[in-house]
């Protein structure tokens, strides 16, 4: 059975009757993005099986492979105001599938999940709910 590693960031909502919440001038409401970095510190080659965006669109699609001891980055962003982004990238190894899931919605908690076979371990670092969130998935042997 594969182990799931989960990092959930909480969303803080600031609101009060009659008060406006300041928004940075450079960010439009709904402009959410996630830059995902995969650091493969194992000797396994990760080969892309499939990838999908269920909300938003890819800015940089996941690469076809992640060689051993290499780092790659892919990213997705929202396509509408008050929208977020959610995507998955699934790779195979000799031990089984490795799946990366990212979700940075506008109004709910963000999720960053890495599902790996028992022989591997995945640590999720730097997850957050920022407009321009950055997350790192670090793959190692168990």
Report on this model:
The protein is mostly beta strands and 142 residues long. It has one domain: Mutm (Fpg) Protein, Chain: A, domain 2, CATH 2.60.270. It has no helices and eleven strands. It has a six-stranded antiparallel β-sheet, with no helix packed on it. Strand 7 (85-93) and strand 8 (96-104) form a beta hairpin. The chain is elongated and about 40 Å long. The two termini are 14 Å apart. Mean pLDDT is 84; it is low at 3-27.
List the helices and strands and how they pair.
Layout lengths: L2 E7 L23 E8 L5 E10 L1 E4 L4 E2 L3 E8 L7 E9 L2 E9 L5 E7 L3 E6 L6 E10 L1
Low-confidence region ranges: 3-27
CATH architecture identity: Sandwich
Number of domains: 1
- DSSP helical segment count: 0
Structural class: mainly beta
Whole-angstrom Rg: 16 Å
**What do we call the CATH topology?**
Mutm (Fpg) Protein, Chain: A, domain 2
The CATH class assignment is Mainly Beta
Find the count of extended strands (DSSP E, 2+ residues). 11
Amino-to-carboxy terminus distance: 14 Å
Percent in helix: under 10%
Order of helices and strands: EEEEEEEEEEE
Signal peptide: 1-19
Keywords: Signal
Could you give a quick summary of the protein structure above?
This protein is mainly beta and 142 residues long. It has one domain (3-9, 30-141): Sandwich (Mutm (Fpg) Protein, Chain: A, domain 2).
């Amino acid at each position: 059975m594969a182990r799931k590693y989960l990092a959930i960031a909480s969303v803080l909502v600031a609101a009060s009757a009659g008060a406006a919440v300041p928004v940075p001038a450079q960010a439009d409401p709904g402009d959410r993005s996630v830059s995902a970095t995969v650091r493969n510190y194992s000797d396994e080659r990760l080969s892309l099986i499939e990838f999908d965006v269920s909300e938003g669109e890819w800015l940089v699609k996941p690469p076809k492979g992640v060689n051993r001891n290499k780092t790659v980055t892919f990213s997705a962003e929202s396509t509408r105001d008050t929208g977020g982004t959610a995507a998955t990238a699934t790779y195979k190894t000799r031990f089984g599938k490795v799946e990366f899931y990212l979700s940075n919605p506008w109004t709910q908690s963000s999720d960053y999940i890495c599902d790996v076979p028992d022989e591997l371990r995945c640590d999720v670092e730097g997850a957050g709910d920022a407009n321009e969130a950055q997350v790192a998935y670090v793959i190692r042997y168990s």
